[in-house]
Amino acid sequence: MKFSRRGILKVSALGIMVAGLLPRVAFAARNTLRSMRTGVQPNGKTRVVIETSLRPSYSIVYGENSFTVKLSNTAANDSAEKKMATGTLVKGLTQSQNGESLNIVVSTTRSIAEIPKSGIMVLEPNGDNEYRLVLDFVAGTVSKGAVTSATAKNASDTVKKNEKKRIIVIDAGHGGKDPGCIGKGGTKEKDIVLSVAKKLQSQLQLAGFTVYLTRSGDKYLKLQERASIGEQRRADLFLSIHANANPSRSMKGFSIYTLSEKASDEEAQKLADAENAADKIDVSGFESFSKDIRIALSSLQQHAVAEMSQEYASDCAKSFKRAGIEQQPGAAVRHAPLAVLRSTVPGALIECGHLSNAAEEKLLKTSAHQDKLVAAIVRSVKNYDFDV
Predict the structure, then answer these.
(1) CB within 8 A of 71, min separation 6: which ones?
(2) Distance CA 285, CA 129 (A)
């Protein structure tokens, strides 16, 4: 709520008049439930996220096939958004007001182990998100009636302990003997995307991220090598930067792709075929992925990585649109079996525009437009919720 200077003076005067009549707690701001959602995390963990308008003070009481999150000084909100992911241990989320506290009952399909301190985080507001109480847990046993609690101060300490410098790996597509697509004016994709990648690395480092490039020069890398770098660097996000081409010279605009076993449309499949064919340029031939990249992921981990990739890609597309960068006709975010994204790291392939379009080819060569692309990607990374 926003007040004018005059409004604040009125409220302050009223507070002075009644301060001696009402208990001090009456002036404390009331927290409000904003949303609840569940998700799947690697290693068989289930995640519950409770979003509130203010930093929460909470306690957790364990029951049989359920646990209750008690939020002090918090109001219920029947219109709060609720999202239930498949494949989790949660079968229901319900809320009920209990005096000044809000009780959120998490019903589970099995009994769960007591949530350790390392599995509890309170995240600061970020982008469109407000404060979030994040709970990660696994199946197990716990004494009925066991209690875990934290005040707002303790919750803040938890955040500091769990903070870490996020790692981003940026992959400039193509390189060396593989020029990528070539515009009518002779512009090579490998040169444009390397320029964008270097600028992106610089700006993300200034924003506080640890950033690695898969290539910093005109070097050819096989797709499995690129994916391996994301794994070896233990990246939190993998971004592959490209420029597109289309038989129709009038086609232009950005598009963003995430990994899936089945392409979202015919055009997405054609792009996957073209990008995956880059490996065939190598004289050693097109080989299957090495064992470490062909890790047999559990279905839960696959689901988690796909969900996180989709979340980033959607936010990135919004960031491009807000920056006034033209979108390719059709869906902004598409899905395809792209080999460079096949790993345990959430990621996206960003097609910055079309070199096959004469006007966009000229635009992509300019430093000003590259800076615009980079600024939009940086905003999307800063707004991305790495923990949820």
Answers:
(1) 31, 33, 50, 52, 56, 57, 58, 101, 102, 103, 104, 133
(2) 47
**pLDDT 10s digits, 189-213:** 999 999 999 999 999 999 999 999 9
Nearest alpha-carbon partner for 63 in 32, 92, 97, 87: 92
| pLDDT of 164 strictly over 70 | no
CA–CA gap between residue 342 and residue 302 (Å, rounded): 10
Residue 118 DSSP label: G
Give SS3 for 154. Answer: helix
Could you tell me the domains of the chain?
27-162 (2.60.40.3500), 167-383 (3.40.630.40)
Asked if residues 164 and 236 have their Cβ atoms less than 8 Å apart, the reply is: no
User: Would you say the pTM of this structure is higher than 0.90?
Assistant: no
| Structure tokens given for 56 | 């929460």
Beta strand 255-259 with 333-336 is parallel
Amino acid at 58: Y
Single-letter amino acid, residue 312: Y
Measured CA to CA, the distance from residue 312 to residue 334 in angstroms comes to 13
Distances from the Cα of 351 to the Cαs of 193, 255, 271, in angstroms?
A: 9, 5, 10
| CA pair distance 67, 59, nearest whole angstrom | 10
3-state secondary structure of 45: strand
Tokens of 380: 């999307």
Whole-number CA gyration radius for the chain? 25
| Nearest one of 206, 190, 198 to 243, comparing CA atoms | 190
Share of the chain above pLDDT 70, in %: 75
